[in-house]
Each structure stands twice: as structure tokens, then as C-alpha cells.
Amino acid sequence: MQGLFRFGFSVHPSTLEVMKSLKEEIKNLKGERVWIELEKALSEAFPCRFFETLDSCGLLDHWFPEISKLHVSDMHDGTAFRHVMNLLNSTDEFKIRFGLLCHDFGKGETDPDKHPHHFGHDSLGVPCIEEFCKRLRIPNELKEFGVKCSSEHMRIKNLPKMKPGKVVKFVLENEKHLYDIFRVSFLDSTCREGADVFSEVEKFATAHDRIADALSAKDGVTGKDLVAEGIKPGPLLGQVLFQRRVELFRKLEKGE
User: Fold this and answer.
1) Under 8 Å between Cβ of 159 and 210
2) How many other CB atoms sit within 10 Å of the CB of residue 152?
3) Does pLDDT of 24 surpass 80?
4) Sign of dihedral through CA atoms 98, 46, 117, 109?
5) Which of 17-21, 42-46, 53-57, 246-250 has the highest average model confidence (pLDDT)?
6) How far apart are CA 184 and CA 178, in angstroms?
7) What is the C-alpha to C-alpha distance for residues 149 and 130, in angstroms, rounded to an integer?
8) So what's the pLDDT on residue 2?
9) Which residues of 90-110 are buried (b: 16+ CB within 10 A; e: fewer)?
10) What is the distance between the alpha carbons of residues 14 and 48, in angstroms, rounded to a whole number?
11) In whole angstroms, what is the distance from residue 18 CA to residue 97 CA?
12) The pLDDT of residue 3 is above 50
């Protein structure tokens, strides 16, 4: 099966029939073993073929129910499943591919009467990713990243319009994976049928600049600076530190 994911080969119909007969056997696999296979698939040239082949055989729903549920109408690429599969081919970086795989899990949990819209899918995806990672024994670092990709990918898109305090707060809360979440959100917006790529690039360039200014503001005012001014460690110091950083962020945005 290696050539299927590395070189894009197709699976012979007789092989597909054999695969379909293995549904009960697949249930006996260990989560760790399934994760090893998923890890390999996400590292190959055509990771979407892994999921598409399992789906065509009726084998996707047991180990990957969150992905199977993405066969719902969507504003992007017709269905959420097709959108995610297309995104997997937009980069060759493993971590980003994992984030793209997870970021829209919540679309399988939204109100069917509202489709193709998926209001609240960012927050609805969080427990789905947690369960997915628990089932497959996925490393905590990747689980944390996947959760962030779901909960924050829509907020990244709103950064250009956020008030200064919210921008600084967002950056401080997500600094660990910030630029990787940014890339997931950017690909989500640009690598889809009918995307206004020029407009999206402009929007994300503004978001990128605001992130850079917020990080500069964080580095420009530290707790040590305030302690040196005589402010004692405690809740007040945290409040003043945040306000000072927001003030510096405003100045940086104005070019002062």
C-alpha cells in the first residue's frame, strides 16, 4: 500500500474487496498501531489517499469517526471532508498536516439544519480532537496543537479587526504554537475552491504584522521591569504588566 500514498497509485478493485471484508478485524487493532499507520500516511506525498481509500471501503468510521462525519455540506469545496482532504495536499510538513486534519472536526457536530454553515465548529471540535487523540494514543504535544488549531483558527482570521487588548491577549495565550496555527488558518482560507487569494493574503499579512507587534510588546515590558519600579509580585503586577504591553502595542502599531 506504500505506493498508494507516496506515488498516488490506485488500488485494484479486488484488493478493495478484500479490504472491505476486514471491517471486524480492524476493530481489534491497538490504537498505538493505528497511530503509527496514520503517522506514516501524513508523512507521504498523498496523505488524502489514506482516508479516501478507507472511506471507499467503509473502514473509516471505526478508528476515524471524526473524519467520517465530515461528509456534510460545506461552504468550502462542497463538503467538509473534501475540503480537509484538499488541504492535506497543500503542504508537506507533518505538524501542519496534522493541524489541518483536525481543525474542522467540529463541522461534523454542527446543526444539520444550518449547513452548509457551521456555526461554532471551532469550539465543537475541541472535545472531538481530545477523544481522537485519546483513542489513538497520540502524543500530548500534537493533541495540544490540534486542539489549538480547532479553537483558534477562526480567531486568527479576525485578528486584523480585533481591539489591541484582545490581540495582545490572544498572542500571549497562544504563543507556543502561534505561527503554526497561523499557517493552518492561512491554508484553510487560501487553499479552497473559489478563494479570493489576494484578499486573503492581504488580511493575513495584517494579522502577521499585529502578531509581530504584540510579541515585541511582550518582550518590551517584563515583570522584572515593573518589580524594579517598585510594584510587588502579585495580581496587581499582572494587571499592570498586561496594560503596559497593550499600551506599547498601540504605540508600535502607530509607528511611534
Assistant:
1) yes
2) 21
3) no
4) negative
5) 246-250
6) 10
7) 12
8) 45
9) bbeeebbbbbbbbbbbbbbbb
10) 21
11) 29
12) no
pLDDT band at 77 (very low <50, low <70, confident <90, very high): very high
Grid cell at residue 99: 493541524
Listed as own residue / partner, the contacts of 13-16 with beta carbons closer than 8 Å and 24 or more positions apart are: 16/53, 16/56, 16/57
Supply the pTM of this predicted model. 0.90
DSSP-H helix ranges across the chain:
2-6, 13-20, 23-26, 31-41, 48-56, 60-63, 65-68, 80-88, 94-102, 121-136, 140-158, 164-174, 178-190, 197-220, 223-228, 235-254
Q: Say how far apart CA 175 and CA 197 lie, in whole Å.
A: 26
- Give per-residue pLDDT as tens, 166-184: 999 999 999 999 999 999 9
Kindly provide the b/e burial profile for residues 168-192, where b requires at least 16 CB atoms within 10 angstroms of the residue's own CB.
Answer: bbbbeebeebbebbbbbbbbbbbbb
DSSP class per residue in 41-90: HTTSS-THHHHHHHHHTT-HHHH-HHHHTT-SEETTTEEHHHHHHHHHTS
Query: What pLDDT, on a 0 to 100 scale, did the predictor assign at position 162?
Result: 97
pLDDT given for residue 10 in this prediction: 63
At CA 104, angle to CA 177 and CA 43, rounded to 5? Answer: 65
Is the preceding peptide bond at 116 cis, omega within 30 degrees of 0? yes
Q: Given this model, what pLDDT does residue 17 score? A: 64
Inter-residue contact 149 to 106 (CB < 8 Å): no
For the cut 80, the answer to whether the pLDDT of residue 8 exceeds it is no
